[in-house]
Design a protein that fits this description.
Length: 414
């Protein structure tokens, strides 16, 4: 078995982490129990690009237990947990990742994860898709299709879909209700602020927290920051989302104005250059900057490095950039995903739904191989609803059911 990890001796610590989250992911566990005897993934090669922490590890383990040959790479250099990598290798899964890899190694790991010519792709940020389409098309000849987890990845795939260059069908997991309504909002909201508070040991009470972007992730961050007693400011480019933020009681203003008064800045747009040189020079001394978007492009680190006269590590995960005006800008997690670079990511109960969607959609791809077009699909409604129903059942919650008369009424135009 091939692998490239930092230290296999960390396997027991990784196993403990995985066993812990497993107890809080009942939906994924129920799917495994349902299909374990059928072995629907037997003979199927799966390539995954994941934030290698305990919850994603459990998804990889379930896929292996259902018969798949699994290869995994990281999807962010600072989100990889070396203990988890060691545990997965010890369980027979090929892992190519370790924390803090450089770009060259990161890209090599993606290729290594794809080198067995997979049937199914589980992508995070569309890095596997980019590799298969741009750099190594020879590795995609057996691909039946796959899933994309993130907002950023779906944005990339939508661009590919518009240009009609997708070479295999993909499903936008991020656009499913049981993903963006819960993972993006509740998951990102909680885990991003955990990352801020863990790495800084500071409170949010009374501070001005600037949230860039009011999509589902931004909404969750703003809501949770408000719950911690912060005064929340939202920056937006979309008039409808800006209006929604204003009507929810948040201050809305351009970033150039917010830069002068903010204490903590959290980007969540999926776009580039949200905070740049023109904003850095306006900020207060000891302003804190972090990013909740998938890629490290929202805070312009190149510009910040260029204008800084001194750079220092101030705490674990906190880098201080000294400017000519005497102020210090504190950046968390090198501008990468703060909830994973500085914390453990989303809560297990939240990721349970997202990964259940991934697994069920992967099984759907197999059941429909050869019938799907090479384009981007939404997750079938029946899969979305099945995950919601299983989650409610795991929580001991029952809901009403429409009667035959009610169904007839809703389907009638008279």
């Amino acid at each position: 078995m091939e692998y490239d990890i930092k230290d296999l001796s960390l396997k027991n610590i990784g196993r403990e982490k995985i066993e812990w989250v497993k107890d809080f992911m009942p939906v994924l566990s129920s799917i495994e129990k349902k299909y374990i005897d059928k072995q629907p993934l037997k003979g199927i090669r799966v390539s995954m690009a994941l934030h290698l922490e305990a919850k994603t590890a459990y998804l990889a383990i379930v896929m292996k237990n259902l018969g798949a040959e699994v290869r995994v790479s990281g999807s962010n250099p600072l989100s990889t947990q070396d203990q988890i990598c060691a545990a997965l290798v010890d369980m027979g899964i090929s892992v190519f990742a370790y924390r803090g890899v450089d770009n060259e190694t990161y890209n090599r790991h993606l290729v290594q994860a794809l080198s067995h010519k997979p049937h199914i792709i589980i992508d995070d940020g569309a890095d596997l898709a980019h590799t298969l389409h741009k750099k190594h098309p020879e590795l995609r000849e057996n691909v039946y299709g796959g899933c994309e987890e993130t907002t950023t990845g779906v944005i990339r795939l939508k661009a590919m879909d518009r240009q009609k260059i997708l070479k295999y069908p993909m499903f936008a997991i991020n656009d499913a209700d049981c993903k963006h309504l819960f993972d993006n909002r509740f998951g990102t909201g909680q885990s991003s602020l955990e990352g801020v508070m863990r790495s800084t040991n500071l409170s949010l009470f009374g501070k001005k927290v600037v949230v860039a972007g009011f999509g589902w992730c931004g909404k969750g961050i703003a809501e949770k920051a408000k719950g911690f007693g912060a005064n929340v400011i939202v920056t937006e480019v979309d008039a409808v989302k800006a209006l929604e933020a204003a009507m929810e009681g948040y201050e809305v203003m351009p970033m150039k104005q917010a830069a002068k008064i903010g204490d903590i800045f959290i980007t969540s747009t999926g776009n580039i250059d949200i905070i740049t040189k023109e904003h850095f020079v306006l900020m207060k001394n000891n302003a804190i900057l972090c990013n909740a978007g998938h890629f490290d492009c929202e805070i312009s680190m190149k510009q910040l490095n260029k204008i800084a006269v001194k750079k220092e590590d101030r705490r674990n995960g906190v880098t201080g950039y000294h400017l000519k005006n005497g102020n210090v800008i504190n950046v968390l997690g090198e501008g990468r995903l703060v909830n994973l670079a500085c914390s453990d990511g989303h809560a297990a109960e939240i990721m349970d739904m997202s990964f259940a969607l991934q697994l069920l959609t992967a099984l759907y791809v197999l059941d429909n191989k050869g019938k799907l077009e090479n384009r981007l699909y939404n997750v079938p409604v029946e899969i979305d609803r099945a995950v919601a129903e299983a989650k409610l059942e795991s929580m001991g919650i029952c809901i009403d059911v429409l009667s035959a008369e009610q169904k007839k009424y809703l389907e009638s135009w008279e």
